[in-house]
Design a protein that fits this description.
single chain, 305 residues, mainly beta, SH3 type barrels, Immunoglobulin-like, four-stranded antiparallel beta sheet, 1 helix
Amino acid sequence: MRRSFGSSPGGERSIWYILGWGAIVMIGIALVWFGFFASGGRDGSEDADASPTVTTAVDGYPTAVPTMAPPTRLPTQAQPTSPLPTPTLPATVTPVPSAKLVAGDSGVNVRSGPGTSFTLLGYLDPGTSAGITGKYEDWFQIDYEGGPGWVFGDLVAATNTDSVPVVQPPTAPTSRPPQATTVPTAVPPTEVPAPPADTRGIVVNSYSVRSAPGPFGVGAEIWFDLNITNKSGNTIQFNALGTWVEQTGQFQKSWSYSSRAPNQNLVWSDKIHIPAAGNYNLWLAIEFSDSMGAKLSGPIPGIVQ
């Protein structure tokens, strides 16, 4: 009795044995294939910076889950900084001090030119200040009543005179324009009060009017000379000393706001301009610091025509 192949118990076991080994081999090949492709490293051509993967199991099979790479942080661009502008300070301008003068204790006469031969324009009281506009030798030019005037430098205190320009003086003394030629009527003196009982110790050594009695021209220079001494034991102060015209009260103050110590002399020369024709009496007069006046010497007649 024949038996067919595999019908025996031993044959059946051989077939199942072969099928079991075949299944194992197939599973192994599948595992190798899956592991090769799942690892992503087939030929090592992937970028070196590829995101890493995380393997998880789904239904018993490994599954690769890619992880998110952290975002690349771009470098912070430095903001351009612009320097703050440096403030420009205004240039410091040093002002140039102006030249000035102050009249001394005796005041000072103002003349039309730098010299006693020029016309007397007026007078600056002691302590009066004025701006200096020019100079010539020992004289300073100032702005006096809207025009140029000149004062003697030794009788004033001047400052900042280094840059004062030198001014050429007039070629000839100027005179004031003549006024009305009518003979004035006699008027009581207005500048010199009635003489006191005495002259307070002032003694006149000499007083004269050059070329008196003239005649002198209208507005011409009439020169006079004086010499006095304080014979008292006290210092005598006075507001004015000079020639006084009896008929008009005109007072040429040659010295103003001054004083004389005991036994001190004063010798001086000056001139007066009488602006109208007539016959006049000229006196040497003084006005003391209390405004009381006295006629010291005279009269000397003068004819103006």
